Amino acid sequence: MEDRVDKPLKIAYLGNGVLSVGFKIAGITDAYVVSDTEHSERKLKELLGMSDVGIIIMTSSVRRMIKDRRLADSVTTSIMPLVVELPELNENMEEEDTLRQLIMRAIGIDITKNV
What we know:
CATH superfamily: ATPase, V1 complex, subunit F
Oligomer: single chain
Strand order of the largest sheet: 2-1-3-4
Helix content: 40-55%
CATH topology: Rossmann fold
């Protein structure tokens, strides 16, 4: 893992076609559209195994498609690459809770708790 930190890392997107276009416009060239469980799991495993990917952004619908228990655990616990879940376009998600969980995974402590 140390060798990953010494080189530039890419951001990858995994989700629907509409958001994929937006991410490509923003410069994220590794944007993949997936529509079923098998394709989602295969692409996610591939991205998790790539040494040049530092962040994987995926939609909540892709997250719900993941049936492989080990893969779902990898998504939850992976720090390198860090997996970030975004809500679908018309879906509400508690941003504060999501950000808090990401910070806890990244640094190992809950910075929102009073000590």
